[in-house]
Amino acid sequence: MKLFSMVVGPIETNCYVVADGDGNAAVIDPGANGGGIAGRLQEKKLTPKAILLTHGHFDHTGGIRAFKRYYPDVPVIVGANDAPMLADAASSASVRMYGDPEDYKGLSADRTVKEGDEITVGAMTFSVIDTPGHTFGGVCYRCGDLLFSGDTLFLEEVGRTDLAGGNYDTLLESLKKLASLPDEVEVFPGHGSPTNMGHEKKRNMYIRKALSE
Predict the structure, then answer these.
(1) Does residue 92 register a pLDDT over 90?
(2) Residue 196 CB coordination number (10 Å)
(3) CA distances for 161 relative to 39, 138, 172, angstroms
(4) Model-level pTM?
């Protein structure tokens, strides 16, 4: 398995590309600079098979339209309860957008997923974990010992809950669910540095609070 990331957009969103040995790739949260993301895949001779969205906020979706100019047939996959956000400027917060307004208009999902669903990309399998709280229908994707946590879980922090669909108590329940994962699971968040579940169980005050309730 190959993994690399790009920091894109004004809010410095982490876009991840995960590929198997044959070059089949999943693109996770292409938040901006879709053309640049496509260029990196071409440089590395990777073929995108899916765009996986952890949630529907604009800073995780803003690169989709430009990316699909290069790869128009790559399906967009998002949690079922966040799918309506993609075309809704208010709930996706794209009213705060930067750059071309067309990047955020009329986006839609080709597939929606929920807890327990699996997405096959070449030799890789991504399992869906429902983690609402930052948004109404946020999800995390687990592939082996890798977890792509979007804005649910950061290094010693969590995502904000004051935007549309956010709920602090719901987020704590999602964190409690993630805390059941093994310590060695590596966490790749939507913003900031990677971490692992063992570290977060010890150092993340929000996970500690979730486990104490």
Answers:
(1) no
(2) 17
(3) 34, 12, 11
(4) 0.96
